[in-house]
């Protein structure tokens, strides 16, 4: 399919707008789900990652079926030609799949230890890593204003980590809070590096081939599911055997899973019709919404000067 230029532009900005909404909703819902007080066990982050991959693959399969006019034979033939008969092309997706799986797990760790606003600002450092990987891997050139904006971004990330003394806290509480924040920040930094590399690598694959973006996502999802399932059994296998994969799941958990799956699809469309750097700046808009909601509704963030 050759996309009409006008439709491509509309799709580009529509997908960017949806991505801003999805990012804001996911961060706040995920943070809420990880801090929600419940009687039973908390849901396993690794399980939520696997569930999101399964849901994403199902959605992509439906979209591929729609592209083939709901012909199961046509879809089967397409999958055989594009996936089975091109094993090396399919294997290329193993690299970003493994990194995305690691990144998704790191985000749960980060949001278990940081408030939504601090997480959002710090996670925007992925714009810098994405820009550096875009320059080195894709040969993209950035203007002076783009480099200046990246430097301002780094300044913002530094300032948001500036230590503040909370009145009434004991020394033990301060140490625990500092340790928790350190774990959260390190998780975000690792996620930023992995996000930058995986995003640019996936963009390179998408733009070098004429394959359907949904077929590519099915390939990516298959590897992500395998990596995620193995990771879940290695790190949370005992809990899974004892209480099941879906222990601690509730309505909020399923909302997080759905939002994460939708995010994967929207990101793929954005990368296909825009680029990773523009995607990064678009998601930065969600910081404002996240900060306001984190301050007024979740009440877990008090902005300082």
How do you describe this structure in short?
This is Solute carrier family 35 member A3b. This protein is mainly α and 305 residues long.
Describe the structure.
The protein has 305 residues and is mainly α. The protein is built from 13 helices and no strands. The chain is globular, with a radius of gyration of 20 Å. The termini are far apart. Belongs to the nucleotide-sugar transporter family. SLC35A subfamily. One of its GO terms (molecular function) is pyrimidine nucleotide-sugar transmembrane transporter activity. The chain crosses the membrane at residues 12-32, 44-66, 144-162, 182-202, 214-235, 251-271, 278-298.
- Measured on Cα atoms, how large is the radius of gyration? 20 Å
* Helix and strand element order: HHHHHHHHHHHHH
Task: State the helix count.
Answer: 13
Q: Give the overall shape.
A: globular
Strand content: under 5%
| Strand tally | 0
Subcellular location: Golgi apparatus membrane
InterPro entries: EmrE-like, Nuc_sug_transpt
Main location: Golgi
Keywords: Golgi apparatus, Membrane, Sugar transport, Transmembrane, Transmembrane helix, Transport
Pick out its properties.
globular, 305 residues, mainly alpha
Secondary structure layout plus pairing:
Blueprint: H1 5-35, H2 45-67, H3 72-84, H4 87-91, H5 94-113, H6 116-123, H7 126-138, H8 144-160, H9 171-208, H10 213-243, H11 251-273, H12 276-284, H13 286-298
